[in-house]
Design a protein that fits this description.
heterodimer; A: mainly alpha; two-stranded antiparallel sheet; 3% strand; B: alpha/beta; 10 helices
Chain lengths: 307, 308
């Protein structure tokens, strides 16, 4: 079977790359990333320096290990920012995709073609994600500098990249679902940001409630952390490693690892703790994405009960 | 834009056309929204090759009827068939054979005219090897060849209507549904559209036009139906409707001196006899001999202005 380009994807990319705002968006994104990178670079390099005194003369030096630690911290902190940027940018790119067609009265001719609702949804989603991935691709030279500094392995970068793609997919799928369900793109955008907020922050709520309901002595237990599986930050934290503190590693060691290694776990909890957290995250991200895409396709089905 | 849209050989071929069936058939077609009966037991038979005018005031149920034919809306009850296929259970087959032009073109964005048609050709699974010739032919048909590289949103309303028609024709459908195609067009654009529809009819298309501009429909339709408040009040050829609802027609005669007189005649023979008498026997300088709009008279007679 020949590989077929989704016509919606091809059309969306043509239109997006033709817009005057597109180069401005790309430039602003890159400026933001470079700004964050430059600031973090200064901070971590300063932290990696040690003061050494020889015969009364003191001077600063950054050893190889110090550089490596700074490189690792820089990479992991950048990951944290990239996930944050994905949470902020993808709903804006995606939530108007279908609701906007409805507002512009161009959705009906599209629905009457031989494209299935799922093809329309996937075309719209892949166009938005392609642009987001294009932005991420444009940041590769910046991320590449962390390789020069050292401390980051290629497998770690690949794992992080795959997890970020999954996170982007989920945020995009949830946004496109809002776009298909709601008539106005403004409402869809608000709803998409609301759901991303629930996924990023609301998933901590069970940690606050479950210990009260089940009389746990501590909120950080394997059962409560499972609710964090679809959390974009928790999912990314689950694949980073290393002894150096960064927001993601700190979160991983203080919450995810702590919940699994704490004493006094019940046998079911110990069984749960044996499954790597990233696996829960992959399953959760994929399930939420698939569910959201199916709901979006369902919302576009025709003939409908209502006009 | 798309280079990989040849039909997938692993897909099952579509079922053969059903030319023995009427282009459009509805039986007791009903659609309710809560307590409102937007379409109420409408039964229609539109033969192949017809230009069928669906006439009615705003809110008569024309657009709802078209939406059910176009696989957009489920009927509440009754049966509907387009090109021999059921829009509810065989929607893909209906879509292969149906071109639909809504009353509004919409805001398309930054696509060029040719890209817009290529996109729809790909979406209707027209093989990519045929796209160039197809786009060329369609643009020529709707007289937009010179606008090939213009963006869709830069076109005038009349041009957009013609482009909408080209889009509806991109997969060479048997049946065309046009919702208020002349709405908002200037006189020149209306005349051009009328010529275009006649040309499409000569290509064997069946065309269903919903409109409230009666004069337009009377000149080009082979069959008409009048709807009001969801109900079908009359249907048939313009002559059938006229003979059913009116005994006479009004002929307005204007003489060279500016004097105008109205005569009532029963049929074509009486109309010809009147003209012969005025010109040959009485030798009057007839400047204009104009038959009154039959559909307008019938429309005013059968509709009540009732709103639901």
């Amino acid at each position: 079977m020949r590989l077929r380009t989704n016509p919606v994807l091809a059309r969306e990319l043509t239109e997006r790359m033709r817009r005057r705002a597109t180069p401005v968006q790309i430039s602003l994104f890159l400026l933001a990333v470079i700004g964050i990178f430059a600031s973090l670079f200064q901070v971590f390099m300063a932290m990696s320096r040690t003061v050494r005194c020889i015969e009364g003369n003191c001077f600063e030096e950054a050893g190889v290990l110090g550089f490596a630690g700074a490189g690792r911290q820089l990479f992991q902190t950048l990951l944290f920012f990239v996930v944050g940027l994905a949470c902020m940018i993808i709903p804006a790119l995606t939530a108007g995709a279908i609701a906007g067609e409805r507002e512009r009265q161009t959705l009906v001719p599209l629905q009457l073609t031989l494209l299935s609702p799922l093809q329309i949804v996937l075309g719209k989603l892949s166009a938005s994600l392609a642009f987001m991935l294009f932005l991420l691709f444009a940041t590769l030279p910046v991320l590449g500098v962390t390789f020069l500094i050292g401390g980051v392995s290629v497998p770690e970068v690949l794992k992080a990249a795959l997890m970020i793609v999954l996170v982007c997919l989920m945020i995009g799928a949830v946004s496109i679902m809002c776009s298909a369900l709601l008539r106005r793109s403004q409402g869809a955008t608000v709803a998409a940001y609301g759901l991303v907020f629930v996924l990023s922050v609301g998933t901590f709520v069970p940690m606050a409630i479950l210990p009260i309901v089940q009389r746990f002595e501590s909120p950080i237990r394997p059962a409560t952390t499972i609710f964090l599986a679809p959390n974009p930050f928790a999912a990314t934290a689950s694949i980073v490693s290393g002894p150096v503190d960064s927001p993601l590693v700190g979160f991983r060691s203080e919450v995810l690892e702590h919940a699994r290694n704490r004493p006094g776990l019940t046998p079911p909890e110990r069984a749960l703790a044996r499954v790597p957290f990233w696996l829960f995250s992959v399953i959760a991200l994929a399930s939420v994405s698939a569910g959201a895409l199916l709901i979006a396709a369902w919302a576009l089905r025709t003939p409908r009960e209502e006009p | 834009m798309n280079d990989h849209h040849d039909p997938d050989p692993t897909l099952e071929p579509p079922p053969p056309a059903r030319p023995e069936r009427p282009a459009v058939r509805t039986y007791e077609l009903t659609r309710t929204f809560g307590r409102l009966r937007a379409v109420d037991s409408v039964t229609l038979d539109i033969p192949r090759g017809a230009i069928f005018g669906l006439i009615g005031p705003n809110g008569a149920g024309k657009t709802t009827t078209l939406a059910m034919l176009a696989t957009l809306l489920l009927p509440t009850s009754g049966h509907v068939e387009v090109a021999g296929f059921d829009p509810v259970t065989e929607q893909r087959e209906v879509r292969r054979r149906l071109g639909y032009m809504p009353d509004v073109m919409g805001v398309v964005g930054d696509l060029r005219v040719d890209e817009y048609l290529r996109f729809f050709a790909a979406a209707y699974q027209v093989p990519s090897s045929e796209h160039d010739a197809l786009v060329e032919g369609l643009l020529e048909l709707v007289d937009l060849s010179v606008k090939r590289e213009a963006t869709v949103d830069s076109l005038s309303r009349g041009m957009k209507q013609r482009l909408g028609l080209a889009r509806a024709l991109v997969h060479d459908p048997e049946v065309l549904l046009l919702d208020e195609p002349a709405s908002g067009l200037d006189p020149r654009a209306r005349i051009e559209l009328r010529g275009l529809l006649s040309e499409l009819r000569s290509l064997g298309k069946t065309i269903l036009i919903s409109s409230h501009i009666l004069a337009e429909l009377e000149d080009m339709c082979t069959d008409v139906a009048i709807m009001e408040a969801g109900r079908l009040l009359a249907s048939g050829t313009p002559d059938e409707i006229r003979s059913r609802f009116t005994q006479t027609r009004v002929v307005r005669v204007r003489l060279a001196g500016g004097e105008e007189t109205e005569y009532e005649v029963a049929d074509d023979a009486e109309q010809q006899e009147l003209l012969r008498r005025l010109v040959v026997e009485e030798g009057l300088p007839v400047l204009e001999f104009k038959v009154g709009r039959v559909l307008e008279d019938v429309f005013m007679q059968v509709t009540t202005g009732e709103l639901q």
